[in-house]
């Protein structure tokens, strides 16, 4: 792949995760980094050998791609006049291509919904390209983003927005489960066992099994059943989860997240 030049607006959790992963696989990529308070751009520039910009006006206008990695709530304050033929990737949750293209007077806008495991090349990254991109441009950005993990094309922005709570927010929901497991194990054993390590290894092992099940076309339900003998230990635990309507609790959580995504898109 040609050595690309990428302008990055916002170097918080997500901007940093994506830039670090791209840099690890494509060390010759040149990054131009901007954040209003400078600090995070400066830190990241040191890690990836990029250029930290002190003023937004210093961002070159002829770069190969631009990454918008700030909060949707900051879009109103964000002012930069892109060249009309710029290629922009936005990770702003919920914000539609049309809104961005009207604001920036740019046609080539892609949306990406990454997640934080991208920093380690283990992200689940959903994307939506509008029809203005040509196959070479899509191939170029695919090569770059492959460094961040698996890429899943979405055929509509609606699908991207619905999926956001599952992949973008997903790690937080899983970490919350891990936190509950750890805290309960610590409480019950009064701290005698290495709860954090046990739980991290259990989640890691389960995730590894889920990935191997993908190739063998084994469902998650079958994996669960392999651990669950009738009237056994796991069965009792699952009965309690079912009686307390765990699935409907998650359904409400995903519905609330989607509602918020739609609010942010306004
Ligand atoms: N975190 C996730 O797991 C995740 C997952 C999927 C998608 N996303 C999306 O990623 C985006 C960023 O989230 P985050 O978690 O990385 O947020 P964050 O950690 O709060 O970082 C936001 C960054 O944006 C910068 N910023 C604020 N206003 C700006 C402006 N006007 N121009 C340029 N940069 C500006 C901030 O600058 P300062 O450093 O100066 O404050 C900061 O570096 C959001 O749109 C979110 O929807 C996040």
Features:
266 residues; alpha/beta; Rossmann fold; ProC C-terminal domain-like fold; 50% helix; binds NADP nicotinamide-adenine-dinucleotide phosphate
Structure explained in plain terms:
- With 266 residues, the protein is an alpha/beta fold.
- It folds into two domains: 5-153, NAD(P)-binding Rossmann-like Domain (Rossmann fold, 3-Layer(aba) Sandwich); 170-264, Orthogonal Bundle (ProC C-terminal domain-like fold).
- 50% of the residues lie in helices and 14% in strands.
- It is built from ten helices and eight strands.
- The protein has helices spanning 13-25, 39-48, 97-104, 135-145, 157-167, 170-189, 195-216, 220-226, 233-243, 246-264; strands at 5-9, 30-34, 51-52, 65-68, 87-90, 108-113, 123-129, 149-153.
- An eight-stranded mixed sheet has the order 3-2-1-4-5-6-7-8, sandwiched between helices.
- The longest helix has 22 residues, at 195-216.
- The radius of gyration is 21 Å and the shape is elongated.
- The model has no long low-confidence stretch (mean pLDDT 95).
- Bound molecules: NADP nicotinamide-adenine-dinucleotide phosphate.
- NADP nicotinamide-adenine-dinucleotide phosphate is lined by residues 9-15, 34-37, 40, 69-72, 74, 77-78, 91-93, 113-116, 168.
